[in-house]
Amino acid sequence: MNPEIPTILALTMQRLAGGITEHGAAFAQGQMGLIGMMMTLSAKEYERGAEIRVAENSDIRALFAALAPEVKDAALKAKLEAAAAGKDESLLISKLNANNYALRRLLTEAQVYAEDNGARAAEQRIWAVLKAMAARRLVQLGP
After folding, report:
1. Which of 56, 80, 126, 136 has the fewest Cβ atoms surrounding its Cβ within 10 A?
2. What Å distances lie between residue 120 and 37, 104, 115, 117, CA to CA?
């Protein structure tokens, strides 16, 4: 989820400490609605945040393992193989995010390579992983 929960909580504290009642009841009511929505999103993220990141990282690594044998660029192939062999050492969100960001940067590199080299099957596999990632991160406000 972006922004991350610490950012949402800090913003909430700023809103509450900033004297929202000074601007009138309508403004305060709007701010409280916004804060309530942010807290609901934070609760949902808290519940599923680690699971989403672990699944994404696993899917990306599996994709790299599948793509690497077809890559002719030696440097990219080595990066894909190294990333595919990696694993998440911690379930801390900050550590999972760091791994996820690094994997996503390499995924972008792999996608550019696939597009530049007409590797349509690789492109389709990449898009399937991206679609699954987007579906996992979808946030619904209802129950």
Report:
1. 136
2. 41, 19, 7, 9
Residues 6+ apart with CB under 8 A from 11: 3, 38
Nearest to 14 by CA among 26, 25, 6, 3: 6
Contact between residue 53 and residue 97 where contact means Cβ atoms under 8 Å apart? yes
Q: How far apart are CA 66 and CA 8, in angstroms?
A: 37
Q: In the structure encoding, which two tokens stand for residue 127, read together?
A: 């898009």
Does the pTM surpass 0.85? The reply is no
For the chain, domain boundaries? 5-137
